[in-house]
Design brief:
By secondary structure, the chain is of the alpha+beta class. The chain folds into 2 domains: 47 residues, no CATH class; 66 residues, no CATH class. It is elongated and about 80 Å long. The structure holds zinc ion. Zinc ion binds next to loops.
Length: 132
């Protein structure tokens, strides 16, 4: 790739060929171990203004926000964090309608609402039991 060369990538959602930033292509190629051509298509898909690309970008933002929540809540437990991140991804992609995870006295329910926002409900149950 020369400095002045205009790089084109194809949006995987709408098939439109778009000029993409060289630096972004190089960065994507490096970060995701892609060929230059694959990286150009990746950047074109990420930055395209078609409805599907925009919906995908919104979905990605929601996933990142939910992921940040999970990292905060389960920062001391990498195993739990992995399971919760999988649950969040699975419901956000509608593989499951709802996933609930019980952890100690907490019950976490993961699903999506009517606007396709990722929803996490946390229920804390403290039951006192005495046996004599
Ligand atoms: Zn597109």
């Amino acid at each position: 790739m020369s400095e002045e060369q205009i790089i084109y990538g194809v949006c995987k959602y709408c098939g439109q060929a778009r000029a993409v930033e060289r630096l972004e292509v190089l960065s994507a190629a490096k970060n995701f171990d892609l060929s230059d051509e694959e990286a150009a298509d990746y950047v074109a898909s990420e930055t395209c203004s078609c409805e599907q690309a925009k919906a995908q970008a919104t979905h990605k933002m929601k996933l990142q926000a939910a992921g940040a929540w999970a990292e905060n809540v389960f920062e001391n437990s990498p195993e739990k964090l992995q399971a919760v991140l999988c649950a969040i991804k699975a419901v956000s992609e509608h593989h499951f309608g709802r996933i609930t995870i019980k952890s100690g006295k907490y019950l976490y329910a993961f699903d999506t609402d009517a606007h396709n926002d990722i929803r996490v409900k946390t229920k804390y149950t403290d039951t006192q039991e005495e046996t004599f």
